[in-house]
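TASK: fixed-backbone design
INPUT:
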């Protein structure tokens, strides 16, 4: 039995959902009785996620910053689910590099995936949600979108853009659509573990008041809450989930 009874049979699309926060969020929505369709660009990881989680309603391989891929993906999601009630736009990449070493190709790629992808997925979702005049869109931003971190110029800029995109959509489509940005800090995801050594993780933990990284499941719990009727008066917000990291201790 789920915590949020109103999420039963809700039709949920999640991008970047073959691993990490996206997959954990999909599993939590399923536990709440929702129907979940996942999108990811890594075919092998997507097939593995679908095979290991047969309760998922379906999935498709696609690039979130490719308009044709997303049109195809959302058409398939709509056909399988019968519509879309919730979008968790989660796909993103991060590259740790000093500013002067960032080539334009990398800058462009990070902005395309992290910000253009949010635009395309939101547009595909809203075009369908407006038929029923209801819906929730949740975008994964980051604490890097709230405050700057060295060595992440492209990532920081993209995540700040996600926050303002979410706020703008919340204003344009109120009162029938709620839109929020979720801003995780350090989370134990495959992306984080590929970038950070054990020593770097320990240093990061020492800067977090709660003294540890979040689990993907803790971030998933926030997504599910924000999609539920319990959050019916929350829209246009950037909501940090970061163990106190941005509270001012080290600013």
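OUTPUT:
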């Amino acid at each position: 039995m789920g915590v949020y009874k109103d999420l039963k049979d809700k039709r949920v699309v999640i991008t970047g959902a073959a691993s990490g926060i996206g997959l954990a969020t999909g599993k939590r929505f399923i536990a709440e009785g929702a129907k979940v369709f996942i999108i990811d660009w890594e075919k092998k990881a997507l097939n593995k996620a679908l095979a290991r989680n047969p309760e998922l309603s379906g999935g498709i391989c696609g690039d979130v910053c490719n308009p044709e891929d997303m049109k195809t993906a959302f058409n398939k999601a709509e056909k399988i689910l019968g519509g879309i009630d919730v979008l968790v736009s989660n796909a993103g990449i991060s590259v740790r590099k000093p500013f002067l070493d960032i080539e334009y190709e990398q800058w462009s790629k990070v902005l395309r995936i992290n910000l253009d992808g949010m635009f395309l997925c939101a547009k595909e979702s809203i075009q369908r949600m407006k038929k029923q005049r209801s819906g929730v869109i949740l975008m994964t931003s980051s604490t890097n979108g709230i405050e700057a971190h060295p060595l992440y110029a492209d990532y920081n800029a993209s995540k700040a853009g996600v926050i303002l995109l979410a706020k703008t959509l919340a204003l344009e489509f109120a009162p029938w659509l709620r839109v929020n940005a979720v801003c995780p800090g350090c989370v134990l995801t495959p992306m984080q573990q590929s970038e950070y050594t054990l020593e770097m993780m320990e240093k990061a933990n020492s800067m977090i008041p709660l003294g540890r990284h979040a689990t993907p499941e803790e971030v998933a719990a926030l997504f599910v809450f924000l999609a539920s009727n319990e959050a019916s008066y929350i829209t246009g917000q950037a909501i940090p989930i970061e163990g106190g990291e941005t509270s001012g201790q080290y600013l």
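COMMENT: Strands lie at 11-15, 35-40, 58-61, 86-89, 135-140, 177-184, 238-241.
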